[in-house]
Write a structure and sequence with these properties.
With 865 residues, the chain is mainly beta. Strand 62 and strand 63 form a beta hairpin. Helices cover 3% and strands 46% of the residues. Strands 3, 4, 6, 7 and 8 form a 5-stranded antiparallel beta sheet that branches. It has a 5-stranded mixed beta sheet with strand order 29-30-27-25-32, with no helix packed on it. A 4-stranded antiparallel beta sheet has the order 9-11-14-13, with no helix packed on it. It is elongated and about 170 Å long. The chain starts with a helix and ends in a 5-residue tail after the last strand.
């Protein structure tokens, strides 16, 4: 028994001595990232469960505890930069510390690529862009290296793009416009580049010059009338960078002159881009300079250049006028000589000596005053002591050459009655219930003693008919009578008369002058002065005023005898029967189409082929793109909106032309649509798509200003003659283009120097066209009718032009008579706008008056339309 106990004790001692505790095994480490640019790394692996794992060799010693069950550890280590970090990991518990496990991590990682990002690809001069540059290691991490970008291509010099900053992001800035290449380079084989465009800053300096058409430009501030002139401008920013294609408007205060659009672009001797255009019709001389003004849109930049225009002394002509063509022996006859150039400019200085001669020579010499006839003044008197018929001539000696002039006079011994001329009113227009009309007369007496004049009137005039102190030549602006048109019957015009009797106090010879005044149904007062009345207004309110707010465009559908009225005030197109009775009550007007946002035309034309019932196309102007469309209206009044390929905002008048033959080709149906704000006529299909090939429309060689009215006439199969109004604010015009060829060539044909005619440019005494509106072709196609809205109340007219005699050859078109025989057809309208003819045997003309809110019917008078 003792022996068994001893053996057990010995065994226990043996076990204790043979199984003494051992320290933990070295930790095992998962693979690490090396080299790396990330200075904080998490080291993971396994160690004895519950042991403390220490990591030395980094920026500082760190430790962590292995999982008590699985032995897993994860410890964050901060590494030393730019070196090899030899890390030593040990595991420690109650039995001791393990042998170390060695791990090496290299920092930073070498850069293998470079990345650069710009905050913008473009900038204005004077601005800045940020460039962020990163050097990436093999793992795609930023290794912290600093690489500054450089400018490797682009403009050089003052203000060129430069780089600033010591670390990313870097600042790129400069004031010199251009395209630059920005490069960040890591090594000879590793780099990255991007393009940065520096654009000009806002416009800061506008330079304007005037000169002749020679190149290079020679700036001038004086020129002779008719000299070809150009304007040239440049626009730069505050750093001197060119503003590409600047929006500049150029205008002039010379009446009748035209500033054409820019037609030339080039570079001047300073390297600046210039833009050049023509100054057309600079022909008016003046003692003070005319101004040419340039303005950069959207800015306050404006520059004015002045130019003094002198008369063209290479083609001077004298004009002689006498106060009377019949005079008595020895009676002083007033004469006046005006010398002018080919542009109508009066020349008063630098002329040679002027002489006055008579043919045949009187047996007793004639006398001139205040100087002798051999060296006469340009204003004076001529007395002839011997009766007879004489040619009175004036001539100028020396240079410049002046073409003389002559007139015939009859010198008699018998008494000569006075001449009475009504100076004004030639076209007095009055609107209201009370009209005070001043009548101005000019009376020429053969003698100077005891002359008299008597005024009296017929009808219901309140008259003051005595004026004292009338002499040889009398101009009196006194109010001779007052007229209240409110007392007259509105249904028919009323005619009253003013009678003027002038008596020569020496011989007793007298002259009676009667002036007829017509009070029309609009209560307008119009002196006829003996001229025949071409037309008469028969319906003052053809359409009731209460139904309309601002009637504008008109059109008539002959198949249904229906008048269409585009009323801008109500944004509605109305239809009215022409059968009467008149006036048409508001309730009898049919609203064809409403909500048209400022409709301005109701131009209706038969569609191609004359399909029965005839359809028509109606041009609609609207204030917004959504409503800028064309509308089809058939004879039954069915309305269809046609698709609009491109919104044509700002349409005023429309003319439709069906498919036709032009030369050897067929021209598809199309629309002519005026756009005043755009300064052109669009030629489109029925969906509004441009047919001219370039989208520029027709500008009549750049001369159109606020075009409004449009009409055309087919000149057989040879050409189409397109007429368009131009509101020049003085010297208003109607331009005609003789169109031929394919439709996609029309724009070029009408925008060049040839084929364009201003039909009213040569009206004797000046055209009456002012603020033109609608145009209409007479039913026979021989005359063009134009609305002249005038410059105020009662100045509205309807004018006609003979277009049947227009001829075109070699690109030049001419009227058969000066100004195409411009004739005033209707006077004394308030604010006329639209025109239309009906299909009567003797066609009636219909005129809309926007102010009166009415449409008037004008019946043909002594001369049919």
């Amino acid at each position: 028994m003792m022996r068994k106990v001893w053996l057990s004790l010995v065994s226990l001692i043996f076990l204790v001595v043979g199984c003494s505790p051992q320290p933990p095994a070295p930790p095992t480490v998962d693979p690490v990232t090396s080299p790396t640019s990330v200075l904080t790394q998490t080291i993971t692996g396994f160690a004895k469960w519950g042991s403390t794992v220490k990591i030395a060799g980094g920026a500082q010693e760190v430790s962590g505890v292995a999982d008590p069950y699985a032995g897993r550890f994860a410890i964050a280590v901060t590494l030393n930069p730019n070196t090899t970090n030899d890390l030593s990991l040990t595991a420690t518990d109650a039995t001791g510390t393990s042998q170390p496990t060695k791990v090496s991590i290299v920092t930073p990682a070498p850069g293998v690529s470079i990345r650069m990002m710009l905050s913008a690809q473009t900038m204005k001069a004077g601005g800045s862009v940020m460039a962020t540059v990163e050097v990436l290691d093999v793992n795609g991490q930023n290794n912290g290296m600093v690489v500054a970008p450089t400018i490797t291509a682009g403009p050089a010099g003052n203000g060129a793009l430069n780089v600033s900053g010591t670390a990313s992001p870097f600042t790129l800035s400069g004031t010199l416009a251009g395209v630059y290449t920005v490069t960040a380079q890591l090594s000879a084989n590793i780099s990255v580049s991007q393009t940065l465009t520096v654009t000009a800053a806002d416009p800061a300096v506008l330079t304007l010059a005037l000169g002749n058409s020679a190149a290079p430009l020679t700036a001038v501030n004086t020129a002779t009338a008719g000299t070809q002139l150009v304007y040239v401008y440049t626009v730069v920013d505050m750093y001197g960078n060119q503003i590409p294609q600047p929006l500049v408007t150029v205008t002039t205060n010379m009446p009748g002159a035209v500033v054409s659009p820019v037609d030339t672009q080039g570079t001047d001797t300073s390297g600046n881009t210039y833009y050049q255009g023509m100054l057309v019709n600079f022909v008016k001389s003046s003692n003070t300079p005319w101004n040419v003004t340039a303005h950069v849109a959207g800015t306050t930049l404006t520059q004015i250049k002045s130019i003094l225009i002198g008369a063209d002394q290479t083609a001077l002509v004298a004009r002689l006028t006498l106060s009377n063509n019949i005079t008595q022996v020895n009676n002083p006859l007033n004469y006046k000589v005006v010398v002018s150039d080919g542009f109508g400019n009066t020349v008063t200085t630098g002329l040679g000596a002027m002489s006055v001669t008579l043919t045949p020579t009187p047996t007793t010499a004639a006398t001139c005053a205040p100087t002798a006839c051999a060296s006469a003044t340009q204003n004076g008197t001529l007395s002839v002591p011997v009766s007879g018929v004489y040619q009175v001539a004036v001539a100028f000696a020396g240079t410049p050459t002046v073409v003389g002039d002559s007139v015939y006079i009859s010198v008699i011994n018998a008494p000569i009655p006075p001449t009475v001329t009504i100076v004004s009113p030639l076209n007095t227009d009055v609107f209201g219930t009370l009209a005070q009309i001043p009548v101005q007369v000019q009376i020429n007496y053969a003698n100077n003693n005891n002359n008299s004049v008597l005024y009296f009137a017929s009808g219901a005039f309140n008259q003051s008919n005595t004026i004292a102190g009338l002499g040889q030549t009398v101009s009196s602006g006194a109010a001779l009578f007052n007229l209240n048109p409110g007392g007259f019957n509105n249904a028919q015009p009323t005619v009253e008369s003013l009678i003027i009797v002038a008596t020569d106090g020496t011989t007793g010879a007298s002259t009676t002058k009667t002036v007829s005044f017509t009070i029309d149904i609009f209560k307008n007062i119009s002196p006829q002065l003996g001229r025949p009345t071409a037309v008469k207004v028969t319906q003052s309110t053809f359409v009731a005023a209460t139904a309309l707010l601002a009637p504008m465009g008109l059109s008539i559908l002959p198949a249904t005898n229906t008048l269409y009225i585009a009323d801008s005030g109500t944004s509605t197109v109305f239809a009215s029967s022409l059968a009467g009775p008149f006036p048409v009550a508001a309730g009898n007007l049919t609203s064809v189409k409403n909500n048209l946002n400022g409709v301005s035309d109701a131009q209706l034309q038969p569609d191609a082929g004359g399909v029965a019932p005839p359809a028509t196309y109606q041009g609609i102007f609207a204030g917004s793109a959504a409503n800028a469309n064309f509308v089809k209206v058939d004879a039954a009044g069915v309305v269809t909106n046609l698709p609009t390929a491109t919104p044509l905002t700002g349409i005023r008048n429309v003319a439709y032309q069906a498919s036709s033959t032009l030369g050897a080709m067929t021209i598809a149906q199309h629309l002519f649509a005026t756009r005043p704000a755009a300064g052109r006529v669009e030629v489109t299909d029925l969906a509004g798509a441009d047919l001219t090939g370039g989208g520029g429309g027709i500008t009549m060689n750049g001369q159109l200003v606020e075009p409004w009215g449009v009409a055309y006439v087919q000149n057989g199969t040879t050409s189409i003659r397109l007429f368009v109004t131009s509101n020049n604010g003085g010297g208003d015009r109607i331009y005609m283009c003789d169109i031929s060829g394919a439709i996609n060539t029309w724009s070029a044909r009408c925008n060049g120097a040839g084929n364009v005619l201003a039909i009213n440019a040569a009206v004797p005494g000046g055209s009456q066209l002012q603020t033109p509106r609608a145009l209409a072709i007479s039913p026979g196609g021989t005359k063009l009718y134009a609305v002249s809205a005038g410059g105020g109340f009662n100045q509205g007219r309807v004018l006609s032009y003979d277009i049947s005699g227009i001829t075109c050859a070699a690109g030049t078109c001419t009227c058969a008579t000066p100004g195409c025989n411009e004739t005033t057809v209707v006077r004394n309208l308030q604010f006329p706008n639209g025109l239309a003819f009906d299909a009567a045997t003797a066609p009636n003309l219909y005129v809309s008056d926007t102010f009166l809110r009415a449409v008037a019917q004008i019946q043909p008078g002594t001369t049919a339309f």
